[in-house]
Design brief:
This protein has 306 residues and is mainly β. It is 5% helix and 41% strand.
């Protein structure tokens, strides 16, 4: 992970489960092995640091060729829909049965089911994927490679009267968000995107053909300054499936619901922040601006949304 973007990454959002990690070995575009005996370095000062060291062993191939190591983590707890037994041993057996397959053939089977309620990140970590890229094997006793891991979901948040997209909300006197309903969101997502990347970031969504839509509700809220790091979304192509956000709120004792049409594609590892900047008392409406940014990007774009 390389944090430092305008929307902070929490400890839970970068958490890796030590007993839920897989490293695949590809040679010339075909799976030849899994790295065995995987173990993370010990963590001392930070529960979930931004950089971890993972070690393990695999048998060096007998022939020379282009190698690639792929890291997949947090799969078991996401109950993959196309794998009969989504346990550690079940997924390992699935990968063993895919020897000789291309990455594409394997990734197409790694689909998570979102579920019908809020994604609880404390008990369900985010699926992540990363690759070392291809390399030639130096037949030494030890091989060291690094990779960035990419989260399989986007996140959505709300700020109330924030000075900018990376500040906490200052609140608006008498204004409280009481509920948020996400309508038309996807019910499935790929653990690995096969869309092209630009500068190590995804720019377009990659959505399973079998994905349908659903509604997720966040109720009984009492939000006066910000609601961040709670809503996680699968990738979504808006031109194929519209997405609507209904925000229920009270203002000086009166209740109302504001519907926002989400007009961006939902792309993994991106953060979508809505900043509620004012309440118009005449017609009791809300003027909203929003910031869209990558979790690891320094660039921010803030258009006006009314």
């Amino acid at each position: 992970f390389e944090d430092g973007g305008t929307d902070d990454t929490t400890s839970d959002q970068k958490a890796l489960s030590n007993d839920d990690v897989f490293v695949l070995v590809f040679q010339d575009g075909s799976l030849i092995d899994q790295v065995k005996g995987l173990r993370f370095d010990a963590v001392t000062d930070d529960t979930n640091p931004s950089s971890r060291t993972l070690t393990g062993t695999f048998v060096q191939p007998e022939t020379d060729g282009s190698l690639e190591l792929v890291v997949l983590t947090n799969l078991v707890q996401n109950q993959l829909v196309d794998i009969a037994s989504s346990t550690l041993s079940g997924i390992q057996a699935f990968f063993d049965g895919k020897k000789g397959s291309s990455p594409t053939a394997i990734y197409e089977s790694l689909i998570y089911q979102y579920g019908s309620s809020e994604w609880n990140i404390q008990s369900r970590r985010i699926p992540m994927w990363g690759t070392t890229g291809t390399f030639s094997l130096d037949r030494a006793n030890e091989l060291k490679k690094s990779c960035n891991l990419h989260r399989a979901v986007a996140k959505l948040g709300f700020l109330i009267n924030a000075a900018d997209a990376w500040s906490e909300g200052r609140g608006i006197d008498g204004f409280t968000i009481t509920g948020i309903r996400i309508k038309g969101m996807m019910d499935k997502g790929y653990c690995v995107s096969q869309a092209a990347m630009s500068n190590d970031h995804y720019t377009i969504p990659y959505v399973p053909a079998a994905a349908g839509t659903q509604t997720i509700t966040y109720s009984d809220l009492n939000v006066t300054t910000s609601y961040k790091d709670r809503i996680y979304l699968p990738e979504q192509a808006i031109q194929n499936h519209p997405l609507t956000i209904a925000v229920s709120y009270t203002y000086k004792g009166k209740a109302k619901t504001k519907e926002i049409t989400f007009d961006e594609n939902v792309i993994r590892n991106h953060s979508y922040l809505y900043n509620i900047t004012s309440v118009t008392p005449d017609d009791f409406d809300v003027t909203i601006s929003y910031a869209v940014e990558e979790w690891k990007s320094e660039t921010i774009n803030v258009p006006t949304f009314k």
